[in-house]
Design a protein that fits this description.
174 residues; mainly alpha
Length: 174
């Protein structure tokens, strides 16, 4: 990380660490270094996720507008834009998760291509399969608004995606 990024991250880590320590104290649990490291890793994962959402939307919008200006793929342009946004935004997430979140420690290695394929599988599972099932559950079974259901999905899909990425996609080899 460059100097500015380090300063920003240190501020984020101090604030979130204080919040987590306070919450752990309230529930009477010990806040260990190991817990702190995992929670900070999750916070970084969340920051990458937010940036991924912005990038995905921008890619979708740009692709959709470009196809409409060029007059190509009429009627299917939004689907093609969705695929373009998915492929490139997952690549964006992979790059930043590999560089900033799931960093390889000394003496470990990672097959980058294997990790990339696993990342696409992970995001496909949580982004398409899991979210679709949850949407049906929230909307049709529990009668939650279609506008609120995706927000509830985030409470489940983000931690699941973090766990899959941490322990499978970005798992270091010794």
């Amino acid at each position: 990380m460059n100097k500015e990024s380090n300063i920003i991250w240190n501020i984020i880590e101090i604030i979130t660490g204080a919040v987590f320590r306070f919450l752990f104290k309230i529930v009477g649990k010990e806040y260990t270094d190991s817990i702190h490291e995992t929670l900070m890793q999750f916070v970084k994962f969340g920051i990458v996720g937010v940036s991924n959402t912005v990038i995905s939307y921008l890619l979708y919008t740009f692709s959709l507008l470009a196809m409409r200006v060029l007059g190509i793929f009429a009627g299917y342009d939004y689907l093609i834009a969705t695929v373009i946004a998915f492929v490139l935004s997952v690549l964006w997430s992979f790059y930043w998760n590999n560089k900033m979140v799931f960093v390889i420690e000394e003496g470990q290695s990672r097959n980058i291509w294997k990790a990339l394929v696993k990342t696409y599988i992970s995001y496909s599972f949580t982004g398409l399969f899991l979210n679709s099932i949850l949407m049906v559950l929230w909307v049709q079974v529990f009668h939650v608004s279609e506008f609120i259901a995706p927000i509830i999905n985030l409470l489940i899909s983000v931690p699941v995606n973090f766990i899959i990425n941490k322990f499978w996609a970005f798992k270091a080899e010794k």
